[in-house]
Amino acid sequence: MTAQLNARGDVAVLVPAAGSGVRLGPGAPKALRLLAGEPLLVHAVRRVAAAPSVRMIVVAAPAAEVDAVRELLAPVAPVVVVAGGAERQDSVAAMLAAVPTTVGIVLVHDAARALTPPELVESVAAAVRDGSPAVIPVLPVVDTVKEVGPGETVLGTVDRSVLRSVQTPQGFRHDVLAAAHRAGLDAHTDDAGMVEKTGTPVVCVPGSEFALKITRPLDLVIAEALLRVA
């Protein structure tokens, strides 16, 4: 059954899904790898579509897979599919161009975080709605972290109390994210990093253990276990 998005919602969710995901091993693009018989992208879009304030979802697919991805997602939710670019930043810019300026909140999500609960989508959107220009969901760092120098020699122990592991979706006021992309900054691994470079404050909200990033084969095993309790 296809989820119906909220026509009065104020949130657009962008899902870059054009990466190869080499750490998962050879095969299909990462977003199309199977988890419990369904592509990661399907899991991710299904959960995003269940968030009440989401008005539209835009997916960036590999150029050769646009029609196939559109067909794949049609039974899940109404989704706009565009061709991704050479870099993640290019894909986000292409998706952002498909979002009307009347949609005030833009979230950038990662298809590899396929089990992210709708409640986290709503939490990030609410923080933007309440006045934060940029918002990221985070978890405390639980491992001891060492700074290492040449020869793998330990230089010191980092204070983990000031560290956070960053998840997605990352949320932004539409104009803030658009301005960061127009600034033509160097490539970043996430959009919050790019927005930081413009001097815009980025606020943290609590993340979710279910929003783990599926990057390695072991992560697929963990995600399948989580599916049984989600």
Cα radius of gyration in angstroms: 17 Å
Oligomer: single chain
List low-pLDDT spans: none
Describe the sheet with the most strands. Answer: 8 strands, mixed
Outline: globular
Instruction: Give the SSE order as H and E letters.
Output: EEEHEHEHEHEEEEEHHEH
Helix proportion of residues, in percent? 25-40%
Strand tally: 12
Helix run count: 7
User: Structural class, from helix and strand content?
Assistant: alpha/beta
Topology:
Blueprint: E1 11-16, E2 34-35, E3 38-39, H1 40-49, E4 54-61, H2 66-73, E5 80-83, H3 88-96, E6 105-108, H4 118-129, E7 134-140, E8 145-148, E9 154-158, E10 164-166, E11 170-173, H5 174-182, H6 191-196, E12 203-206, H7 217-227
Parallel strand pairs: 1-4, 1-6, 4-5, 7-12
Antiparallel strand pairs: 2-3, 6-11, 7-10, 7-11, 8-9
Structural features, described:
The chain is α/β, with parallel strands linked by helices and 230 residues long. 28% of the residues lie in helices and 23% in strands. The chain has helices spanning 40-49, 66-73, 88-96, 118-129, 174-182, 191-196, 217-227, and strands spanning 11-16, 34-35, 38-39, 54-61, 80-83, 105-108, 134-140, 145-148, 154-158, 164-166, 170-173, 203-206. Strands 1, 4, 5, 6, 7, 10, 11 and 12 form an eight-stranded mixed beta sheet that branches. The model has no long low-confidence stretch (mean pLDDT 92).
